[in-house]
Design a protein that fits this description.
The protein is an alpha/beta fold. The chain has twelve helices and 13 strands. It has three domains: about 130 residues, 3-Layer(aba) Sandwich (Cobalt-precorrin-4 Transmethylase, domain 1), CATH 3.40.1010; about 80 residues, Rossmann fold (3-Layer(aba) Sandwich), CATH 3.40.50.11270; about 80 residues, 4-hydroxy-3-methylbut-2-enyl diphosphate reductase, catalytic domain (Cobalt-precorrin-4 Transmethylase, domain 1, 3-Layer(aba) Sandwich), CATH 3.40.1010.20. Strands 1-2-13-11-12 form a five-stranded mixed sheet, with helices on both faces. The protein has a four-stranded parallel sheet with strand order 4-3-5-6. The longest helix has 17 residues. It is flat. The two termini are about 15 Å apart.
């Protein structure tokens, strides 16, 4: 039965247009396999933000600060700290700065933070993801003309906090189905719905359907979930539906990794969250069958490779 499943997986990978285009390793006996998702690891926005910080380090720009951790991965953040990059967490800390370079992370920030940085005459390096910047422009323009804004996403996530900070009209954040059901428009204007870039696509569509049913005004729906997120979630869901065990790698504070875990857990009950290499419990790896590996947008490739190699090594010995 297991060898048949592996054969089906191999066929799926070969199919034109298949979402399963990752790295497949098949064990020597043909009854075990490890599939590592092609979409796993740093997305464009995260890689761009990291490269930006490292360029500042190489240019000897000192002192260097990031407004919030540059990405939600402790390994990377600790490496940057060892190179002298300090994390600023609050607006109050920014107000205390008199010199230095401040890097705005890929999640983006509210307009008031840009205004404060300008007032303090600090050197600003903007590494906001272009997909997030696009949402800032949308809500700024739409709210300026009187539209009421709905952001579908996690209210406490820094990306959503930043998006809210570009709204000049009424704004509501919807994170759960219950909040979607409870939503009531506060104004007589049109409604504009956007999404956190890393939100679950299926949930987004469901929440939009609920809100549209409850709204009596013109509603503009702008799916601002980035392509990389859609691809990552689709690939993870597809491999999890075939896997005997699923490993999702990422930081505990990473919103997109948490959503990946939720998606995979629905398809494969043996889904495990791994934050660092040391978290990988060898007992989680089955003696045979298919092990699927996916990872969040803030997960270093070297960590994904280490987990994949260890799983192959264990299965080779079984």
């Amino acid at each position: 039965m297991t060898s048949e499943k592996i054969s089906r997986l191999e066929e799926s990978i070969r199919e034109e247009g298949s979402v399963l285009k990752g790295d497949l390793w098949v064990g020597p006996e043909g009854d075990s396999a490890v599939y590592t998702a092609r979409s796993a690891g740093f997305c464009f926005g995260v890689q761009r933000a990291l490269d930006t910080v490292y360029r500042q380090i190489e240019a000897n720009e000192s002192p260097i600060y990031t407004y919030g951790p540059i990405i939600h991965n402790e390994i990377v953040v600790h490496d940057l700290e060892s190179r002298g990059v300090r994390v600023i967490e609050t607006k109050k800390e920014l107000e205390a700065l008199s010199r230095g370079t401040v890097v705005i992370r890929s999640h983006g920030v509210a307009k008031e933070i840009y205004d404060l940085l300008e007032e303090r005459h600090l050197h600003v390096v903007d590494a906001t993801c272009p997909f997030v910047k696009k949402i800032h422009r949308i809500v700024e323009e739409r709210s300026a003309r009187g539209d009421e804004i709905v952001i579908i996403g996690s209210a406490l996530h820094p990306e959503v906090e930043g998006i809210r900070g570009w709204c000049s009209s009424e704004v509501t954040v919807v994170e759960t189905e219950e909040e979607a059901e409870a939503f009531r428009q506060k104004t007589d204007g049109d409604l504009c719905i956007v999404s956190q870039t890393t939100f679950n696509l299926k949930k987004f569509n469901k929440f939009v359907e609920i809100i549209r049913r409850l709204s009596y005004h013109e509603t503009a729906v702008l799916n601002t979930i980035c392509n990389a997120t859609e691809e990552r979630q689709t690939e993870a869901r597809s491999i999890a539906s075939l896997a005997d065990a699923m490993i999702v790698i990422g930081g505990k504070h990473s919103s997109n990794t948490q959503k990946l875990y939720e998606i995979c857990r629905k398809e494969c009950s043996n889904t495990f969250f791994v934050q660092t290499f040391d978290d990988l419990n060898l007992r989680l790896v089955p003696f045979r069958g298919i092990v699927g590996i996916s990872a969040g947008a803030s997960t270093p490739n070297i960590l994904i490779e280490e987990v994949s190699k260890l799983c192959r090594k264990i299965l080779s010995r079984c």
